[in-house]
C-alpha cells in the first residue's frame, strides 16, 4: 500500500507540473505589440486591450466595424472594461495585384487624420472610409477620393491632409503596423487580439467572451 501511495503521489505531482508547463506555454504564446503612439478608443487604463488589424478594402472589416463594434463599444469600451487599439494591415490590393495599392493609401489617410486630430479624427475618417467601401477587386480608395472623404471630418485641415497624403508622410507608420502584423503571423483581416491572444472569430459574442475571460 505504501508503494502504491507513493506512485500515486508521484503521478499527481507529474500531472501538476505538466499542467503548469502547459499554462506557461499558453501565456508565452500571447503576441506582444508595440502600441505606443497608436490610435486608441476607450480609457487608457482599461484592464483589457484589444488590438485590431484591418484593411479598408476588406468586407469583413466593414462588417466588424458596422455590425459588431457598436455592441462591443457599449458593453466594454464605453464602460471602461476594455480599450481598442487600431493597427493597419493593408494587403488586399497587393494580393489582388491591383495597379494602385489603395489598401495602403487608405491606411495612410487615417494615419494622416491621426497626426492632425488624434484618435477621434482617426476613428471618424475610418468609419467614413468603411461606409464608402468599394469592391476589394477594384481600385476605389484613390488619394483624390480619400481627400474628398476627409473633407467633412471635424479636426482635419483639408490642405494639411492633402499634403500629408500626397507626400506619403505616414507611409512609414503604415509599414510599421504591417510589420507588426506579419511578425504576429496575421494572415487575414479583421484579426482581433485580446490581451495578446488571437480571437478565433470577430463576432461580438466571441470577442466579448474573450474580454470577459481576460478580465477575470
UniProtKB/TrEMBL annotation:
Q: What is the lineage of its organism?
A: Bacteria, Thermotogati, Deinococcota, Deinococci, Deinococcales
- Domain of life according to the entry: Bacteria
Entry's Pfam families? Thioredoxin_4
Name of the protein in question: DSBA oxidoreductase
- Could you tell me which Gene3D superfamilies the record lists for this protein? Glutaredoxin (3.40.30.10)
* GO MF annotation: an example: oxidoreductase activity
UniProt keywords (A-Z) are: Disulfide bond, Oxidoreductase, Redox-active center, Signal
| Residues in Thioredoxin domain copies | 24-216
Q: Where is the signal peptide?
A: none
What protein family is recorded? Belongs to the thioredoxin family. DsbA subfamily.
Amino acid at each position: 500500500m505504501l508503494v502504491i501511495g507513493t506512485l500515486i503521489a508521484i503521478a499527481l505531482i507529474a500531472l501538476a507540473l505538466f499542467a503548469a508547463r502547459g499554462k506557461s506555454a499558453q501565456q508565452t504564446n500571447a503576441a506582444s505589440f508595440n502600441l505606443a503612439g497608436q490610435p486608441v478608443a476607450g480609457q487608457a487604463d482599461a484592464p483589457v486591450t484589444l488590438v485590431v488589424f484591418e484593411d479598408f478594402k476588406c468586407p469583413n472589416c466593414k462588417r466588424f466595424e458596422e455590425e459588431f463594434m457598436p455592441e462591443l463599444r457599449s458593453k466594454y469600451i464605453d464602460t471602461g472594461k476594455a480599450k481598442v487599439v487600431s493597427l493597419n494591415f493593408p494587403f488586399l490590393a497587393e494580393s489582388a495585384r491591383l495597379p494602385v495599392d489603395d489598401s495602403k493609401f487608405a491606411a495612410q489617410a487615417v494615419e494622416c487624420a491621426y497626426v492632425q486630430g488624434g484618435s477621434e479624427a482617426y476613428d471618424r475618417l475610418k468609419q467614413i472610409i468603411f461606409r464608402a467601401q468599394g469592391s476589394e477587386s477594384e481600385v476605389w480608395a484613390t488619394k483624390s477620393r480619400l481627400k474628398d472623404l476627409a473633407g467633412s471630418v471635424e479636426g482635419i485641415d483639408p490642405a494639411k491632409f492633402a499634403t500629408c497624403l500626397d507626400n506619403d508622410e505616414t507611409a512609414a507608420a503604415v509599414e510599421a503596423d504591417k510589420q507588426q502584423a506579419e511578425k504576429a503571423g496575421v494572415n487575414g483581416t479583421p484579426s482581433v487580439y485580446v490581451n495578446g491572444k488571437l480571437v478565433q472569430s470577430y463576432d461580438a459574442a466571441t470577442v466579448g467572451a474573450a474580454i470577459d475571460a481576460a478580465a477575470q
